[in-house]
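Example 233, ligand magnesium ion.
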Amino acid sequence: MPEIRLENVSKVYKTEDKRKQYAVRDLSLKVSQGEFVFLIGSSGAGKSTMLKLMGGEISPDEGMVLVDDVNIGRYFGPWKARLARTFGIVSQETLLIRKRTIMENLMVAARASGLQRKSRPAAEKALGLVGLPTVGDAYPAQLSIGEVRRVELARALISSPPILLLDELTANLDDDTIWDVLHLLRELNNRGTTIIMATHASQYVNIMRQRVVTLVDGRLFGDVRNGRYGDIV
Ligand code: ADP
Ligand code: MG
């Protein structure tokens, strides 16, 4: 089962006045299969960048991202497809296609991850898991923001990936729904799925008592087991 390692990873962007700005700086971290990790830090701290680096959506400028000891920067061809099956991703930006129904969206994702004839039952099952079994015929714009986030979670779950990378999944959800989603994630985690989620939902982080990784200005500032929001040692 996949283990992720970041080794001295940096990601640099150019600012408008052409200065170099580190989104993530010299970050080293290991996440073993089956861990539940909350990634916290203020806006601009580098959380989304770190998740995108882990999932291979962007490449580091320095250092390496390894999945099971293989540098994913060197992935190509069939390895890329393998990477797509390894990670279920919910980005901060929506990944749903506006002009397709929810069911069509999920079936596109299912086929992309190699489920062919099984794509419809897999989509129905995933919608059931997130508590939205009846939204298949709706278009994304017809759902609330919270429902869209849950559909995006369903999309990420569709091929039962070993690792979930979730960016601000709980933003815009009401308290009851956050609980439902966290229960679902905990259940998946109990069955072995790795969960790495960036969140601002401090009260839930404090109740769940999982590993808490804190970023400040792109650097690793804290990494605590059974942690609380804001713990650094
Ligand atoms: P967070 O998710 O913690 O809010 P991000 O990873 O989105 O932080 O961003 C970290 C820093 O990198 C911010 O200063 C942001 O402006 C910058 N950044 C992120 N992505 C880009 C990009 N594509 N182009 C330029 N700057 C970026
Ligand atoms: Mg972000």
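Summary: The pocket of adenosine-5'-diphosphate (ligand 1) is lined by residues 13, 23, 41, 43-49 (CB under 6 Å).
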